[in-house]
Amino acid sequence: MIKKVLIANRGEIAVRIIRACRELGIATVAVYSTGDSNALHAKIADEAVCIGPASSAESYLNMRAIISACEITGADAIHPGFGFLSENANFARTCEKCGITFIGPKPESIEMLGDKAQAKETMKKAGVPVILGSDGAVKDLTSAVDLAREIGYPVMVKASAGGGGRGIRIVREESELETQITAAKTEAMACFGNDEIYIEKFIENPKHIEIQILADNYGNVIHLGERDCSMQRRNQKVLEETPSPVMTNELREKMGASAVAAAKACGYRNAGTIEFLVDKDLNYYFMEMNTRIQVEHPITEAVTGIDLVRQQLLIASGKELDIKQEDVHLTGHAIECRINAENPEQNFRPSPGVINSLHIPGGLGIRVDSAVYQGYEIPPYYDSMIAKLICFGPDRESAIAKMKWALSEFIVDGVSTNIDFQLKLIRRKEFLDGNYDNGFLGRVDILKDQ
User: Fold this and answer.
1) Is 292 marked active-site?
2) Does domain 132-201 have CATH number 2.170.190.11?
3) This prediction's pTM
4) Which one is catalytic: 292, 338, 367, 396?
5) CA of 196: how far to CAs of 70, 143, 368, in Å?
6) What residue segments make up the domains of the chain, in order of their start?
7) How many angstroms separate the CA atoms of 401 and 391, rounded?
């Protein structure tokens, strides 16, 4: 069993991992930047090590500093959380070379799935439905023009090494193609150090449905149902729910089987998420696989009763999955709202600053994952998400009702937040009817349209 885990992350996910480790009797080490000297994760871990300046590049992305912190503290494992180095194959490989357990998949799996073009080819061979598009990276403009004509507009230009909505452009006619390819390649190189792009058919107004899987080191793979992540703004998730309003038992069984096949095709281990696009006729297509714990994992925990971070730790310790597919039962409904320190009235401008007062809602079926506290100063250097509000009820209507009053009770004074925006969102008729898709927030002004 792992004895001591270093958490190579910050914020609420670092706190979440520390708590899971405590339940298993595993010691924890927090790393923090100078910009996070008062961060909660650094205060509650058993040990804490400063690894550099506030800049992510010099701290949370600094592999050498993180490995050194492991050596200094005697940590025998690293949990990368999400973001930062969580899907960096070189980091996972470095951990292996240093005799440190990387709590995640093998570096080869990360590499394969991180290259979106290679991942797509792997899925095709495994029999997982994929969207029409290029077989691998597009070599030049002529090839791109020919392919786009063949599959038909609109098309999507996507960074092969992309993620988080970066390096994506929608092209609706040929005259835009060259400009959008250049823009996507420039952004991809700046964000990922790799400017390769691929092209695929753009599916109009799809649902974004992802399947959570768990895989151990012995070939056992299970899925834990779906999450509907269609409520997005500029390719960034805003709200997630499970089950999806459009899901049927037959579709869930098919998508779950495809997700398991996808994981087995690349020798996957640990927790992972296979993301699909689902069209209006309920046809589904592989989009990508995230080789880490997801931000929205708590809603899956709510409806399955399975602690995903605990399972990550057990799998990384060499334990065989003690959950079989027939043991997975989805009960009730769960919704997660991401609470961000941002000003929706000013184009969602980040709002760092000091939290003067804080009231977090509670009650049966209410969970808040956060790392903020009264008097905490939100730094300007990192992602603006400060909390995740999760509401669980026996059905969708009760989960929505709980979310309404929980958001109404959630008070963060001193900085701007998107709480009122989320409250307006879940009161929309389209959301109440489950009638929304990936493009909904691009078509509707939540702040003005009623």
Assistant:
1) yes
2) no
3) 0.90
4) 292
5) 34, 13, 39
6) 4-103, 132-201, 207-443
7) 9
